[in-house]
Amino acid sequence: MKVERIVNPEYSQNCYLVYDSNKKGLIIDPGSKADYIIKKLKEYEVDVKYIFLTHCHYDHIEGLEELRKELNAEVVSSFECNKNIQNPSVNLSSLFSFPIKAEASDIIVTDGDITEVGDMKVKTILTPGHTDGGTCYLIDDELFSGDTLFLNSVGRWDFPTGNEEVLKESIRKKLFTLDDDIIVHPGHGNDTKIYYEKRYNTFCKE
Q1: With 0-12 CB in 10 A as exposed, 13-18 as middle and 19+ as buried, what is 126?
Q2: What's the rounded Cα separation, in Å, for the pair 114 and 128?
C-alpha cells in the first residue's frame, strides 16, 4: 500500500491518495482544488473510484463535487457527515462567503464497517467529537484520523456539533485501544503514532 499526502497550502490541510500495487486507490478528504488532486492522480497513474470523508468541514470537502464528477467516484461517509456536507452553516463554508452544499454521499458507513478498495480493506472507526460525524479510517497499520487526532493535539470542538467530552471518549476508547505502532495520518500537520499520542498528548490525559 502506498500513501501520498496532497497538502492544500491555503488551509494546510492534508488530502490523502492511498492505492494498492495494482494502482487501485481512494482519496481521503479532498480539501484541495480538484484540478490539483487530478494532476496528482495522473502523476501516480492511480484509478480512483472512491472518495472517503472524515468529516464535513469546508477545508476537507472543497474539491469534492468537481472531483466526484470528474472521476465518476462514489463518496463514502458516516450518516451524520452525509447530512452536514449538505449544510453550509454546519460545514462552515457559509462563514467565508462561498457556501458549499455538497450532494449526498453514495455510501453510508458505520462503526466497524469494512469497505474493499482493490486489495485494501478500509475499516471505519466512528470518532465523534470534533463534529458529530467524525470518522477515522484504518487500512492495515495506518490510520487516517481527519481532525480527530493530531500530533500532540486534537481537533477543535467549538464548532457546530462539536463536543469536548465526546471527543475525549472517542480518542481514548476508539483510537488509544489500537496497536501502539499504528501510524496516524492527520487532517493537518505531520504524521504521528498511537503510542506517541498515548504518552505525550496532554489533552487525552485522564
Answers
A1: buried
A2: 19
Contact present, 40 and 72 (Cβ < 8 Å): no
100: Cβ contacts below 8 Å, ≥ 6 apart:
58, 61, 62, 64, 85, 88, 91, 93
Facing residues of 120 across strands?
117
174: cell is: 476508539
**What element of type H or E holds 163?**
none
Q: Helices (DSSP H) in 12-115: which residue ranges?
A: 34-44, 58-61, 64-71, 79-84
pLDDT tens track for 186-203: 999 999 999 999 999 998
Q: What is the pLDDT of residues 83-100, one digit of tens each?
A: 999 999 999 999 877 899
36: left (phi over 0), alpha (psi -120 to 50) or beta: alpha
The Cα 115–Cα 92 span in angstroms is 28
